[in-house]
Amino acid sequence: MLDETMRSVSKAQSLKDIGTPCLLLDRDRMDRNVGRLRERLDRLGVALRPHLKTAKSVDAAQRVMTSPSGPATVSTLKEAEQFARAGVTDLIYAVGVSPDKIDRILALRADGVDLAVTLDTVEQAWVVAEASRRTGDPIPALIEIDCDGHRSGVLPGDAAKLVGIARALEEGGRLRGVLTHAGASYGAVGDAALRACAEVERASAVQAATLLRDAGFACPVVSVGSTPTAHFAETLDGVTEVRAGVFVFFDLVMAGIGVCAIDDVALSVLATVIGHQREKGWILVDAGWMAMSRDRGTAKQKIDQGYGLVCDIDGKPFGDLILSDANQEHGIVTVRPGSNARLPDLPIGTRVRILPNHACATGAQHGAYQVVRSGSDAIEAVWPRFGGW
């Protein structure tokens, strides 16, 4: 059983008296989201290696990982260091490794952390191999595969490049496997498109692993994962693990492409009404882009949510009420353009919740989660977050 100890609240607080803006986490929704993906991956016969870049919180991570020691994925060495101090020892650093990161990687490994790195060039493989020879510690690495042209990686059918990287790496390091991420899935809409992205992701990783094995290299790990594909893959044959991160909280982008419902979004920003511009149809709140982030990830979707969808204090959406614009500390709430909805009467001092476009970006604006339960206005715990690289 995972350690469920939560940071205590210094004094009894509720959504009615805590300072705003602040970041709320609905623990019941989060637990439901985590359970949903765990059950799905159990049926498909693969392990979950959650990406902790979204949570950036030890308390949250303990509820997401399958054991206190992992496995888990990180995107910064700061994350690796913070989670290692909390006892997480099975980690993949899923961003391309560079020479300046090697000393910190070696220090973590010397402290007993099984930290694997990611690379997609012979040059990176040489750096890892040299450091491994110098220290006598064969650093494990995964070759990143480009499954959809979204970002970095080696094309899955490029046998010459894959084998060249593997040979360079094993001059001192150790090839652990291949890794890919279907970033293009965030632009897919509908079940069929998401299933297709998931299959391309799976097939690409398996193809690359097969080429490496045929060339005589052990390739025990075949790692795939994005939140959309994790929820829509019909088969994961040949895959050993799935990495996903935003599934823990979900957000409006995920709702917009059909991965979750609005009622699944566990993260919100609590804000207070601070003014009105009635002739303009505006309600002003104290949550601007410093609280919500500049992310406008729904702008290209069928429904543009502005900077966030506005809900009442209990988390129920008003309807077509959005944070349509944002200054540093001022948010402008309006009815969604083109809607026939009426602007609600929200007196100054009214508390509202705003659901975010991108959970990772909004979370990064805050130092802690104020943890609540569904249907309750009591803050039962404060879970610290961290940032940095």
From TrEMBL:
Under SUPFAM superfamilies, the record lists: PLP-binding barrel
Q: Which Pfam families match?
A: Ala_racemase_N, D-ser_dehydrat
UniProt keyword annotations, A-Z: Lyase
A GO molecular function term, named singly, is: D-serine ammonia-lyase activity
Q: Which residues form the D-serine dehydratase-like domain?
A: 266-373
Q: Gene3D superfamilies per the record? A: Alanine racemase, D-serine dehydratase-like domain
- Specify the signal sequence span: none
GO annotation (BP), single: D-serine catabolic process
Instruction: Tell me the PANTHER family matching this sequence.
Output: D-SERINE DEHYDRATASE, ZGC:162816-RELATED
Return the similarity comment: Belongs to the DSD1 family.
Q: What is this protein called?
A: DSD1 family PLP-dependent enzyme
Q: Which organism is it from?
A: Azospirillum lipoferum
